[in-house]
Design goal:
By secondary structure, the chain is mostly beta strands. The chain has no helices and 17 strands. The strands form 3 sheets. Strands 4, 5, 7, 9, 10, 12, 13, 14, 16 and 17 form a 10-stranded antiparallel sheet that branches. A hairpin with a 6-residue loop joins strand 13 (150-159) and strand 14.
Length: 208
């Protein structure tokens, strides 16, 4: 067995890639091509306790085309009354409608409802909830076509309330456009101030 002992790794231009101490390698920048999972958590929404929408800008290596997958996890979001709960992704030039049209199913106390992809409520956003309630929510996003920055999104929400068993889910896609990598996402309601955000905690993870 051969042993190489180093305390620093540099490239040929003497740029430091990693320092090694106590058996732990600390990288100057996250390793590329390894599918490293990065976590951002303990996020909340500032301002009024009820809002029509709120958005989140990605940080770190998720930007500049870095993110290949994105998972959003959220608890305590209140849909103040019956109304569509929407999700969108954005690029540096904002929110574009490069698709989204998809079926949406929602359930209340065992009563199943479904909208087809011709419903106008799915024209420029992914619907993930409808009935009033306080939700836990997870959305998985996958980059499927880097040339057009087309993402497939699987969104699910389940009520935390004990009085009504409500839920919703949809699988949609959206193309942000060539040379327009994802930079953030937004939740919104079709009802003015329809989102109760006072007790929200959320975060996201991504791979590069």
């Amino acid at each position: 067995m051969s042993i190489i002992k180093v305390n620093q790794i540099q490239d040929t231009s003497t740029n430091v890639a990693a320092n090694i101490s106590g058996g732990i390698a600390t990288f100057t920048n996250p390793p590329q091509g390894l599918g490293t999972i990065n976590y951002v958590n303990n996020l909340s929404v500032s301002g009024s306790s009820t809002q029509t929408e709120f958005e989140t800008n990605l940080t770190g290596t998720a930007l500049s085309g870095g993110a290949k997958t994105l998972k959003i996890f959220l608890t305590g979001l209140s849909n103040e009354q019956n109304g569509y709960l929407h999700f969108r992704i954005k690029s540096a030039d904002g929110y574009t409608d490069g698709g989204y049209a998809a079926g949406f199913s929602f359930n209340s106390n065992g009563t199943f409802n479904s909208n087809g992809n011709t419903d106008s409520n799915q024209n420029n956003a992914m619907a993930i909830g409808y009935y009033g309630g306080t939700y836990n929510l997870v959305i998985d996003c996958f980059l499927v076509d880097p040339s057009t920055n087309r993402w497939v999104m699987d969104g699910r929400c389940m009520s935390k309330d004990t009085t009504a068993g409500v839920s919703g889910n949809s699988i949609a896609d959206n193309a942000l456009g060539a040379s327009k990598p994802i930079t953030g996402f937004k939740f919104s309601s079709t009802t003015t101030n329809g989102l109760g955000v006072a007790n929200i905690k959320y975060g996201y993870s991504y791979t590069v």
